[in-house]
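2024-03-11 09:14:02 INFO queue: dequeued item tRNA dimethylallyltransferase, len=309
2024-03-11 09:14:02 INFO validating residues
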Amino acid sequence: MNPHNRPKILVVVGPTASGKSELALRLARELDGEIVNADSMQVYRGLDIGTAKPPPEQRAGVPHHLIDVAEPDRLFSAADFAEAADEAIRAITNRGKRAIVVGGTGLYIRALLKGLVDSPSGAGAVRKALQEEAAQLGNEAMLDRLRQVDPELAARMHPNNLVRIIRALEVHSLTGVPLSRHQQEHAFGARRYDSLQIGIRIDRQELYRRIEARVDQMLAAGLVAEVQGLLTQGYDRQLKAMRAIGYKESAAYLAGECGLDEAVQIMKRDTRRYAKRQLTWFNADPDILWFEYPGKFASILQHAIEFFE
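2024-03-11 09:14:37 INFO prediction written
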């Protein structure tokens, strides 16, 4: 994209159950906008209840893009998202509308706004050796190794995120340069859009209350039946989409591996943990303006109007 003629986009971020979808919808109505989904699970067809997709009647009033664009057995990557979002945003702006990107998948947002790091490929011997080492030593040992060569990146990494840990070790092994430095150099001057990022600030205990209520609502709406339907269609439990929170626990319950009460408690616990990781990711971005919602909606709207105009 021409850096002197970047399209303007509004980006709404925050943890799960914070009210992002509702805020984006209100802004779209006020600003004559269209919504671009940036939730990595809402892209999948058939995953409706457990991903908290906006209902069809809500989407009918304001055009929504990048919802239901992939089958559950397709690996939809951040690069796929950025390419599809670019196309959607281009079409929206060409129609004279305003693009409002909304979602809690931090990597998708980063890929859209700054692109993906062009670091060395490692499909060969280095990655294989690291994977074998991880199988023997465990995730925590690999994260300890990363702390020695890239402490900045390791501080933001969870031991369970083995794919990213191995990727970071791989890049350092191939280049001698920490992946965090690759990311910093790549991000400098690489902004792809003129963007205003709005984050929803919410009290932690209130957020947890909403998360628990949302899980209960999903179950009442038929989450377990939705998962049963996907399994009946032949979608494997090990697919990325089927490992999403709510889906993997429901599948375990249906397989007789745990009781329903236990599955529900795990869903709530893991959703709280996911929300904490989202907050950690977004809090590290100095470009995000944080507001309480709905209390500060008027201020959010005013910022958005001034940004676009």
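2024-03-11 09:14:37 INFO annotate: Strands lie at 8-13, 33-37, 64-65, 98-102, 194-201, 288-292.
2024-03-11 09:14:38 INFO item closed
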